[in-house]
Amino acid sequence: MAYDVKLIGTKLRRWENYLNSFRLPQWDELPDMDLYMDQVVILLQRYLNFLPEDEHGNAAITPSIINNYVRLKIMPPPVKKKYTRVHMAYLIMVCSLKQSVNIPYIQKMLPLGLPETEVRRIYEGYVQTHHEMCLAFIKLARAAGDTVLHSPEALSEDVERLVYSSAIVSGFSKLLTEKLVHLEGETLGSQPESEITLKR
């Protein structure tokens, strides 16, 4: 693969600046009035403006995607075609998690039928963790891309190494998430000794 090292360096700096200032909305910042679908989509696109379009140029958040989430029981159904603060919280978490976690795991992480107080607790924890991981990712990307950012001798191969390292970290993170979700409700005593490893 051939890369323009200066272009990549510029993009990395912009990405770092963006993540430094990015915040998901707090619970109390979510609308406290019921919304129609078009309003939900507009707000989600604003809240999650880091989500990329798909390979066909389609938006990451559309009415059909939200309808699919309802149909698949990933989030509660709207009430008389209107969406509440609880719906918005589910959608923000689902849409951002979907970038790295498969839907069956998201369903286990965010079960339906929870009271609003529990959804709020989960959402507030998610927002805090999301911000912490943004800052951690900045450090990781800065370390991995240090040569690209600071060496005048940086080569296209250095960018290629950054691409590979990002993909590998993403893969390990996905695997760890899946393994931890599988362990929900398990205890050390319920696991055969031969299976008490990270490998399933």
Description:
The two termini are 35 Å apart. The protein has one domain. Helix 4 packs parallel to helix 6. Helix content is 59%, strand content 0%. The chain has eight helices and no strands. The model has no long low-confidence stretch (mean pLDDT 87). With 200 residues, it is an all-alpha fold. The longest helix has 29 residues.
Features:
single chain; 200 residues; mainly alpha; 8 helices; globular
Can you lay out the helices and strands and say which pair or pack?
Layout: H1 5-21, H2 37-47, H3 63-71, H4 85-97, H5 103-109, H6 116-144, H7 146-150, H8 156-182
Helix pairs in contact: 1-6, 4-6
* Termini separation: 35 Å
Strand content: under 5%
Mean pLDDT: 87
Helical fraction equals 55-70%
Ranges where pLDDT stays below 50 over 5 or more residues in a row are none
Task: Explain briefly what this protein structure is.
This protein has 200 residues and is mainly α. Helices cover 59% and strands 0% of the residues.
